[in-house]
C-alpha cells in the first residue's frame, strides 16, 4: 500500500528498505534510496529518484523527471513531456504521452516510443551499453548504439536501423524495413512488407503476405516458407543472384548482371545491362529489357521477351530436337524429345518475342546473314610518268562474293585539276561542286568471285613547270559489300609526274 503524500509540494526520502510513495498533487521530490521502491508522482511536475535496487517509477500527469539509478528499473513518464534516465541495469523506459527524453545507461534497456518528439539516447557503446530495444508505434530510425527495433500496432510503418548489427521486427501492417550497414536480421511478420537489408550479409524473413526483398549481397539469406506469402519478389543489385525457395519474382536493379530462378513459376526482369537470366524449373516469364541479353527458360513452358538489344535464347539440345515455328513475328519453340537419352531436361513449349537468335548445342537459328566483304582503295607504285602513262588505283574486295558487287568512286580536285593535270576513267563528263572544284563520278563492277578492279588515272604532259599538286579518290555507295576505313586515296603529282 503506497503512502500518500499531501497535495502540496512534498519532499520525501525513503529508507534502506522497500518504500511505496504516492506524491498526489503538487510538484514533489521523492527519493527511494535502497530497496525495491515504488514511487508515484501524481499530478504536478515531479522528480522521482529510485536509488539503488529494482525500482518502479511512475510520473503520471505533469512534466516529470524520473531517475532509476542502479538496478533493473521500470520508468513510466505518464502524460506530458517527461525526462527518463534508467541509469545502470536492465531498464524499461516508457515516456507515455508527450515528447519524452529517454536515456538508458549501461545494460540491456527497452524503450517505448509513441510520439514523433520522443528522443532515445544511448551514450555507452559496445558491450557495456548492452543490447537495447526500441518498441515503436510510429515510423522510427534507430539512434546510435541501439541494436534492435520492433514496430507495434496494426498500422503499416517504416523502421530503419543504423550502423549496428540490428534485429528489426515489423508488425501486422504493410511495413518498410531497412537494415543499413552490417549483418542484420529483419522479420516482416504479417502484411505485404518491403525489406531492405542494406550492406552486409543479412537474414530477411518476410512472413505472411506478398513481400519485396531488396538485396545488395548475393549471400543475403531470404526465408519464405511454402505456406507464407502469395507473390514475393527480390530486387537485387548484387552482381549475380539466385532466388531462394518459395520466392516467385526477381528484378535486377542497377549494377546487377545475372539472375537465376528456382523451381516455381518465376518472373525474371533484367535491366539496361547485358544480363544472363535463367528461369530454372517451372513455367517462367523472362524479360531481358534493355541490353544484349542471354536468356534461358530451362524446364517448363516459358514466355521469353528479349526487349531492346541483340538477345539470344539458349537451349541445351541440338537444333533437330526442337520444332521452331514463326507465329506472327514470335517464335514458338517446342522440345520434341522431352527427357530422352542424354537430354535430362524437358524444356517444354516456349513463346519467344524480341529475340534475335536461338542458340543450340550444334548451331543457331536463324542462320546469320553473311557479312559483306570490305572494299579498299590504294595506289599502285609508279616511279615516273610520261604523257599517256596512267596511275593505277587498285580497289580490293577482302574476299570473293557470290553476288555482283558495285561501288561508286568519286575524284575530288584538291590542288590538281581534272582535264588539265589528269583524267580518270573513260567517261566524257565531269561536274563542279559548290566551291568550283571539278570532280568525276564513275562506277566499278565486280563480277561474282572477283576481288580486284582498277581505276586508271591519265596524266597530261605540258611544257610548263608545275609544283606539287593533289587530288583524291573516294569509294562510296557500295552494293553487296561494305566500305572499309581505307576508302579514300590521295594522289600527288609533281610537274605532270606521279609523285606518290
From TrEMBL:
- The record places domain Calx-beta at 389-496
> Is Acetylation one of the keywords UniProt gives this record?
no
UniProt superkingdom: Bacteria
**Main subcellular localization, coarse class?**
secreted
* Regions of compositional bias (Polar residues) in chain numbering: 284-295
> Is Signal found in the keyword set?
yes
UniProt feature, compositional bias: Basic and acidic residues:
55-66
Q: Which Gene3D superfamilies match?
A: 2.60.40.2030, Serralysin-like metalloprotease, C-terminal
| Key words, A-Z | Calcium, Repeat, Secreted, Signal
Concerning Pfam families, the annotation shows:
Calx-beta (PF03160), HemolysinCabind (PF00353)
Which cellular components does GO assign to this protein? extracellular region; membrane
Task: Locate the region Disordered.
Answer: 1-25, 44-80, 275-308
Compartment(s): Secreted
* One function term, GO molecular function aspect: calcium ion binding
Write down the PANTHER family for this protein, in alphabetical order. S-LAYER PROTEIN (PTHR38340)
From the Swiss-Prot or TrEMBL record, give the protein name. Calx-beta domain-containing protein
Give the source species: Chromatium okenii
Amino acid at each position: 500500500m503506497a503512502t500518500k503524500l499531501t497535495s502540496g509540494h512534498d519532499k520525501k526520502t525513503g529508507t534502506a528498505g522497500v518504500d511505496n510513495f504516492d506524491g498526489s498533487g503538487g510538484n514533489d521530490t521523492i527519493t527511494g534510496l535502497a530497496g525495491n521502491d515504488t514511487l508515484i508522482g501524481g499530478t504536478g511536475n515531479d522528480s522521482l529518484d529510485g536509488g539503488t535496487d529494482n525500482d518502479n517509477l511512475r510520473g503520471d500527469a505533469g512534466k516529470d523527471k524520473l531517475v532509476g539509478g542502479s538496478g533493473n528499473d521500470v520508468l513510466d513518464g505518464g502524460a506530458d513531456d517527461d525526462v527518463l534516465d534508467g541509469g545502470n541495469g536492465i531498464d524499461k523506459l516508457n515516456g507515455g504521452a508527450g515528447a519524452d527524453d529517454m536515456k538508458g545507461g549501461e545494460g540491456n534497456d527497452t524503450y517505448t516510443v509513441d510520439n514523433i518528439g520522443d528522443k532515445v539516447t544511448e551514450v555507452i557503446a559496445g558491450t557495456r551499453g548492452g543490447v537495447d530495444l526500441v518498441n515503436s508505434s510510429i515510423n522510427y530510425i534507430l539512434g546510435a548504439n541501439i541494436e534492435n527495433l520492433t514496430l507495434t500496432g496494426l498500422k503499416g510503418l517504416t523502421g530503419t536501423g543504423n550502423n549496428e548489427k540490428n534485429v528489426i521486427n515489423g508488425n501486422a501492417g504493410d511495413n518498410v524495413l531497412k537494415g543499413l550497414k552490417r549483418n542484420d536480421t529483419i522479420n516482416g511478420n504479417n502484411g505485404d512488407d518491403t525489406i531492405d537489408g542494406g550492406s552486409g550479409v543479412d537474414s530477411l524473413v518476410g512472413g505472411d503476405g506478398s513481400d519485396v526483398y531488396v538485396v545488395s549481397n548475393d549471400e543475403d539469406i531470404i526465408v519464405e516458407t511454402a505456406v507464407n506469402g502469395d507473390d514475393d519478389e527480390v530486387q537485387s543489385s548484387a552482381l549475380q543472384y539466385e532466388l531462394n525457395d518459395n520466392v516467385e519474382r526477381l528484378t535486377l536493379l542497377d549494377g546487377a548482371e545475372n539472375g537465376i530462378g528456382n523451381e516455381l513459376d518465376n518472373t525474371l526482369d533484367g535491366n539496361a545491362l547485358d544480363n544472363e537470366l535463367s528461369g530454372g524449373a517451372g513455367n517462367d516469364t523472362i524479360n531481358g529489357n534493355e541490353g544484349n541479353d542471354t536468356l534461358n527458360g530451362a524446364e517448363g513452358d516459358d514466355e521469353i521477351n528479349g526487349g531492346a538489344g541483340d538477345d539470344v535464347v539458349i537451349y541445351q539440345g541440338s537444333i533437330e530436337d526442337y520444332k521452331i515455328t514463326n507465329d506472327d513475328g514470335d517464335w514458338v519453340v517446342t522440345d520434341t524429345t522431352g527427357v530422352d537419352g542424354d537430354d535430362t531436361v524437358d524444356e517444354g513449349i516456349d513463346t519467344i518475342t524480341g529475340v534475335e537468335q536461338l542458340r543450340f548445342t550444334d548451331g543457331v537459328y536463324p542462320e546469320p546473314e553473311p557479312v559483306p566483304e570490305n572494299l579498299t582503295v590504294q595506289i599502285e607504285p609508279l616511279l615516273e610518268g610520261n604523257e599517256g602513262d596512267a596511275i593505277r588505283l587498285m580497289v580490293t574486295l577482302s574476299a570473293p562474293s557470290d553476288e555482283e558487287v558495285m561501288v561508286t568512286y568519286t575524284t575530288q580536285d584538291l590542288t590538281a585539276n581534272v582535264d588539265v593535270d589528269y583524267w580518270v576513267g573513260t567517261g566524257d563528263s565531269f561536274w563542279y561542286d559548290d566551291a568550283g572544284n571539278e570532280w568525276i563520278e564513275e562506277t566499278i563492277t565486280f563480277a561474282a568471285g572477283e576481288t580486284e578492279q582498277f581505276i586508271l588515272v591519265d596524266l597530261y604532259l605540258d611544257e610548263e613547270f608545275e609544283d606539287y599538286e593533289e587530288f583524291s579518290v573516294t569509294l562510296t555507295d557500295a552494293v553487296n559489300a561494305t566500305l572499309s576505313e581505307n576508302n579514300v586515296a590521295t594522289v600527288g603529282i609533281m610537274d605532270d609526274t606521279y609523285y606518290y
